[in-house]
Write a structure and sequence with these properties.
This protein is an alpha/beta fold. It has helices spanning about 55-65, 150-165, 180-190, 205-210, 265-270, 285-295, 310-315; strands spanning about 10, 15, 20-25, 30-35, 45-50, 70-75, 80-85, 85-90, 100-105, 110-115, 135-140, 170-175, 195-200, 220, 235-240, 255-260, 275-280, 300-305, 320-325. It contains seven helices and 19 strands. The protein has a seven-stranded mixed sheet, covered by helices on one side.
Length: about 325
Amino acid sequence: MAPFADWLKPTPGGLFCLPGGFFIDPIRPVERAVVTHGHGDHARPGSAHVLATPGTIEIMRSRFGAEAGGRLQPLEYGEWIELGEMRLRFAPAGHVLGSAQIVMEHSGQRAVVSGDYKRRPDPTAAPFELVPCDLFVTEATFGLPVFRHPPDYSEIGKLLDSLRLFPERTHLVGVYALGKAQRVLALLRRAGWERPIWLHGALIALTDLYRRLGFDFGELKPATGAAKGELKGEIVLAPPGALREAWSRRMAEPVRAVASGWMGVRARARQAGAELPLVISDHADWDELTATIREVGAGEVWVTHGREEALVHYAQGLGIKASALSLVGYEDEEA
C-alpha cells in the first residue's frame, strides 16, 4: 500500500488529496474544496466548487452570500460520493451545525480528517461518529492534559446561580456567533430558563438560520436599542469582543461572562474581561482527544490545529506512528 503521505499532502493552501483532486478546508480559493464546517478559519469564500454538508452550505451562504463559491454541492452524512480515484463520505463531528469528519477511501486504505470536533452531547449539533480508520488526522486545540472541560450543565448552573445572587444586574455573556451562541441558548432552555433571552445584533442572522432549520430557542429579543431598565436581571448574549465596547455600558451593572474552553485559563479569562468565566467548549478536551485516538484504531495519526506536540507524544506512547502537520491559517479562538 502507498504511504498516506503519497496521496494526502500538506501544502501552503491546506491539506490536498491527490487522488480526489481537492483541498480540505483551503485557506484561499481553489478549484475544488471539501469543507468540514462553517467557521471562518475553515470555510472561506471564492472556491469554484465546494462540497460540504447541507448545514455548512447554508452557513456559508448566510455568511458569504454570492461569494460563497461557484458551485455549492451538498452531501448528507453517510452518503458516499466518488471523486477521481477515491470515494468520500461525511460523518458527524459534533462541533457545530453541519460539522463533519471527512472519511476517504483509496487503494484499500481509509483516512479520516476530523476537522474540529467534540464528543460530549450538544443539542444543536449531530453527535460525533467514531469511524475506525487507518489514518486519523485530528485537531488539537486543547491538546494538553491541563484541559479537562467540566460538564456543560455545571457551567450553565454557575450563570443561573449568579442571576439569583444578583437579580438586578444584567448578565452579559460573550459567545461566538456560530455554534456557541445557539448551544448556550439551548442549554439555558434545558436548564429551565424561560424568560426572553436578548441578542446582540451580530448574533441574530445565524441564530435565525438555526431557527429556520428547526431549532427552537424560545422567545428571543434584540438587545440593540433596549432600555437599561428592560435588561435588569436578564441574559444578554453578545460576541466576546462586544463585552468591552461602549455598547455594553448601556447594561444594568453588567456581570460580564464569557463561554469558551479558554476560560479555564485564568490569564485568558482576565484578558477577555470575564468576571464570570464559563468553560463551555465546542472542541474536544484532552480526555476526548486521547480517547478518540485510542478508539479509532488507526496505525497512523497526524495532529494539527493546536497543541500538537503533547498529542503526538501520547500517540507515540501507544505505539502509533504519529506526527505534527503544522498547517497554518487555522485559528483556535472560537473554542
